[in-house]
User: Fold this.
Amino acid sequence: MHGLSATPASLVAAQRRGAEPLPFELRPFVGHLPHDDLRAAARRARQLGVGADEVLVAQGVVDEAEATDLLATHLGLAVAAPEDAAPPPDAATAEAVLRTGVRIEAPDGGRPRFTLAARGRDVRRLFRALRRDPGLAGRVRLAVPGAFRRTVMAAAGPMLAQAAVKRLPDRDPLKSAATLDPKRVLGRIALVVGLPLAGLVALAPEQGVLAVQALLSLVFLGWVSLRLASCTYDPPADLPPTLDDRQLPVYSLLVPLYREAASVPHLVTALGALDYPVLCSKLT
Assistant:
């Protein structure tokens, strides 16, 4: 627990020089990385609104395993092996573990134990929690975030996929493409439109043919009108950006596809052409 009570000499010297102290998540790296690199990571983290240790990992200065080992040594915590992870009992628990990076194990009659894949601001909260309750260190283990997620996905991947497939159809069937039945849709169209036209043609062939021609002509004219209207559309000019690149937020783009394999190459090309500064991009 020395990392919670002792302040490294370099941090004290920096404070004496009037420099802003390093954030909590960078303290494990003091003495292992150049101080200028740490200060640059802290500045970049403030610009992006992320943890400074996440910047170091994203820039390749340290890898995830090394960062976790340094943090565990600094806090006096153990590092959990990937094979020690108990599989989540259900999809909801697996989603919560992946979202929070925390796995809770409650042995019978004992106090809960925690396995944390902590980075960035989670490290700051862990610092504060250990400072308030030093005895918590005996019930907390750290995990390498990437290995932690892979282990959970390997154990709960089928459950998560099944839950994702069924969630929207079960909660709101009208919004799900999985509930669409082409045969049923075509059958309804034939029943609503085709049956009256067929009856009209059978009873009055000349009038029936004229009705069919009129209906097809309306569809054709409507389609042509839509195409002509699109030719006259003048899109507005793009507004100048109100923020510089350093102030833009970091976010993820999720692109759902359903029976659209033919459009994937063009979609990937378009996504790759996006001009947006990011900390670390990953195309899956």
In short: The chain has eleven helices and four strands.
